[in-house]
Amino acid sequence: MNREQREREDIEPARRLAPAAPGRAPVGRRQHEVSPNCKRAAAIALLFAALASIAAAHELGTIRTFATFRKDGTYRIEVIVDREHLPPGFAASATAAGGRIGNLSPELESAPVGRILAEVLAHSEARFDGKRVEPRAEWENPDPDGAEPTLVLTGPIPGGARDFSWSNALPLGSYLLTLRTEGVAEAERQWVEGGQRSRPFELRREIVPPTTIDVVRQYLTLGFTHILPKGVDHILFVLGVFLLSQRWKPILLQVTAFTLAHTLTLGLTIYGIVSLPSAVVEPLIALSIVYVAIENLRTSELTSGRLALVFAFGLIHGMGFAGVLSQLGLPRSQFLPALVSFNLGVEAGQLTVILGAFLFLRAPWGRRPWYRQRVVVPLSLAIAAIGAYWAFQRIG
Fold first, then answer.
1. Which domain holds residue 359?
2. Which residue has the higher pLDDT, 374 or 96?
3. Which one, of 226, 250, 242, 227, lies nearest residue 379 by Cα?
4. Which residue among 92, 96, 300, 322 is least packed, with the fewest CB closer than 10 Å?
5. Closest Cα to residue 324, out of 225, 254, 212?
6. How many domains are there within the chain?
């Protein structure tokens, strides 16, 4: 075969495969039309490709987040990380947790799982009413080689909060955020794109703790109403203290001793340091009323013994206040403000009783020579009789 024949054989296949000129069929080939079956197959392939791209955009992703809002006024957020689907080199340059994750040992802080958790924590953000909070972070399933390490964030729900939002700035695509309220069957689910903030989740009133101002107002009222009008036994005791003398100094000294005493045992009892059963406390309160009223019949002077007994009776009354407060309950997040406010409400109620006794008894008749015989003695007898009846009733 000479050179010209070889060149002709090399050119002929290329000529047959070359595109035809416009309006002409390819040289050496008959023009074919695409069959309807091929068109249908192509359309189905395109449809499946589109569905696959949509599904890929809304897969579970490498992180899943669950937020639960509890009835005790706290929240718990679980961020579950799928280690198998993390991009290569993820968290390789991340800073170690450095004690930010409570139960992560120093050895694991620089290990892969520690760096993964630290990276997730650094890019996570929880907000209530748009204000960022700093939760406590822990590692829930401490297995260094676990496929799904879980970062758990917990903390108190801010008082009066209305809504919650969440974001995770990791570039890991979209992820599923599940939000639920304790005691409510239905949960809200949102697909959130990495770096974007979730839609605000409205918090139910029953799981949101009150603000400090709300707590102070509520427990001031509870303390006051425990005296007026509900605390008839405490009212009679304060009246017995008031009736001893017409001078203000003995009254103020007794009230101060009583206040210090019941404040002391109120706090100690609430904190569980001291305790007496109500079957003992309630009869003793009634007997304290009897004693104070009977002593008013014997003397009109304040003695050190009387002051010591008023203090002792105040200790007993404080346990009674604590029993009532325990039944009402104290908010965990606002424990101290509630306790102090309740005590102040009790004091306000007692001072109101003394003020009322002054306006209705001392002011109109205190200067009359018969004030003691016609006011102090009869009222003290009545108070003693009522106290004795209560003591007998409560002991029985």
1. 212-395
2. 374
3. 242
4. 92
5. 225
6. 2
- Give start and end residues of each alpha helix (H) in 272-334: 278-298, 304-328
Beta bridge partners of 55: none
Q: How many CB atoms lie within 10 A of CB 17?
A: 11
pLDDT tens-digit map of 150-188: 999 999 999 899 999 999 998 888 899 999 999 999 999
25 pLDDT band, cuts 50/70/90, is very low
216 and 359, same domain (yes or no)? yes
Backbone angles phi, psi at 188, to 5 degrees: -100, 135
How many C-alpha atoms does 246 have within 13 Å on its Cβ side? Answer: 14
Token pair for residue 324? 């009532």
pLDDT tens column, 69-92: 999 899 999 999 998 888 888 877
392 beta partners: none
Within this chain, do residues 340 and 216 fall inside the same structural domain, yes or no? yes
> If 0-12 CB within 10 Å is exposed, 13-18 middle and 19+ buried, where does residue 55 land?
exposed
Boundary (domain end) residue, out of 187, 207, 227? 207
